[in-house]
Every structure is written in C-alpha cells, then in structure tokens.
C-alpha cells in the first residue's frame, strides 16, 4: 500500500483560492517534514507563476507534454520536468498548452485515467500530491478526481454556494460510482473571509448548519488580506512574505487539520484491515 495521499483542490467556481490553497497547503506540509508534489492542472498556470516560473511557456516539459506522451503511448521518464522550489515543494508546471488537452482527452482510450497513469509512478517519491484544478468540471477536473484519494473544496466565505456545491457534489458522486469508488471528500475550506462583515459570518453559520452534518467544514477559515495577493505577485509564499500575518497563521493551522484528517483516515483504514 502506498503511503502517498493525492488531494484534488476543486471548485468549478473561479477565484475561490484553489491555487493559493494548493500552494500554502503544499508548503505548509513541507514545513511539517512531508515530501510534496504540486500538480498545476489549470491551463492558466497560476500555480506555476505564483512559485516564480513566470516564463512557463518556454519550459520544455510540462504536465501537458507528459500527459500527451501517455495518450500517444510513448515511453517517458516520470520525474522528468519536475521543478524544485526553494520553499521545499516540487511542482509539475503548466502553461497554456494544457488547454488543448481537454479536446485531446475526449477521444482518448484512457481519457479519464491519464493523470492517474502519470501520477502512479510518482507516488512512491511523495507523502502528498496536491492537484490544483481549473474552474470547470471538464475532462481535466474529472482526471484529477479520478486520480485523487480525496477532494478539498475551497469556497469563498461571502458567497452562498448552494447551487455550485450541488453541481460539484453530483460530479464527485458520479466519479465515485463510475471511476474512483475510494474518492473521499476531506471537506470544505472557507476562504477570502472578511469576518468583519455580517455576510461572511452569516454564510459561515449557514454553511456549517446546512452542510456540516453531511460534510466536514474545516474549522480554520482563511481570512482575506492584501498580503496574500501581493505574495503571489512577488513569487513568494505568504510564509515568507508575511510570516506573522493572519493568512500565514491560518494556512499553517489548516495544514495541521489536513494532516490530522489524513491520519484519522489511515487509522480507520488500517483497523478495518486488521479485523
Ligand atoms: N486570503 C486572501 N486574501 C486576499 N486575496 C487572496 C487570498 N487568497 C487568494 N487571494 C487572491 O484571490 C485571487 C484568486 O485566488 P486564486 O487564484 O488562488 O483562486 P482560484 O480559485 O485558483 O482561481 P481560478 O478559479 O481562476 O483558478 C488571486 O488574485 C489571489 O492572489
């Protein structure tokens, strides 16, 4: 049994801090001694850029080139093209070329499993693989859900996400039934929260009340702060850019919650095996 946990960060709504959360959960896990690979599965390439690779278009090997080799059944070295960031995480970068993959996947034999096939051989090198999904429920997101052990859903705290959540949960359910029966939902993370506003507090209460019985809403809420936006423009994590700020503290706390959640799942799994 592999010890690696693959987590997809997904929400088809744009701008819910999927990329920011992937990056800070990843570096947070690295701070806790875990080996982490980040997968930039969003053709916008924001994760790649936020880690400082601003000329991603000139990178010879990206997620797209590796997935293409799988589609064409060509041999390739799995860890080729993986970049190492000075804050302790690895990344398979992406550029806009990945947008063509949505179409290429449609007629492919392994159309839902291509990302899973790519990650299979990398799992032995990492404790966590985090996939930053694009804001859609297209083939790339389906690939991420098929490859993942669990999903984390970042949701904007001031936005009542009922409609979007229902759609996402339906897709996750379908993936569980048809492609990946072991896929779990780790939980919903409230992001971009301005807790001084009544709307953010009401949304949080309503989410906890309506969904909390069925799905974990992480205790940590990520506050909104201009330093978070500034840090990604500076190509640094918030842990470097503003290490004593509220966002850095919240992401460190969230990282601890994710580790605990993984340990609980692992213990449950092991005790069911030892019975
Ligand atoms: N805690 C925060 N406070 C302030 N700004 C933030 C915070 N978190 C993220 N942002 C900013 O909000 C914007 C959207 O964040 P991000 O790119 O992480 O969202 P996303 O869900 O990945 O977006 P997309 O759906 O386009 O992929 C970015 O400009 C980012 O810098």
How would you characterize this protein structure?
This protein has 275 residues and is α/β, with parallel strands linked by helices. The chain has a single domain, classed as Rossmann fold (3-Layer(aba) Sandwich), CATH 3.40.50. Helix content is 44%, strand content 17%. The chain contains 11 helices and 8 strands. The protein has an 8-stranded mixed beta sheet, sandwiched between helices. The longest helix is centred in the C-terminal third of the chain and has 29 residues, at 246-274. The mean pLDDT is 91.
Order of helices and strands: EHEHHEEHHEHEHEHEHHH
User: Overall 3D geometry?
Assistant: globular
Number of domains: 1
Rounded mean pLDDT score: 91
Report the strand count. Answer: 8
By CATH, the topology is Rossmann fold
The name of the CATH architecture is: 3-Layer(aba) Sandwich
InterPro entries: AAA_dom, DNA_Partitioning_ATPase, P-loop_NTPase
GO molecular function: ATP hydrolysis activity
Family: Belongs to the ParA family.
Keywords: Hydrolase
Notable features of this structure?
275 residues, alpha/beta, Rossmann fold, eight-stranded mixed β-sheet, 11 helices, globular, binds adenosine-5'-triphosphate
Can you give me a brief rundown of this structure?
This protein is of the alpha/beta class. 44% of the residues lie in helices and 17% in strands.
Describe the secondary-structure layout:
Layout lengths: L4 E5 L8 H14 L4 E6 L4 H5 L12 H9 L11 E2 L5 E3 L8 H6 L7 H7 L7 E6 L5 H9 L2 E7 L5 H17 L5 E10 L4 H14 L5 E7 L2 H8 L4 H4 L4 H29 L1
The structure holds adenosine-5'-triphosphate.
Catalytic activity: ATP + H2O = ADP + phosphate + H(+)
Organism: [Ruminococcus] torques
Keywords: Hydrolase
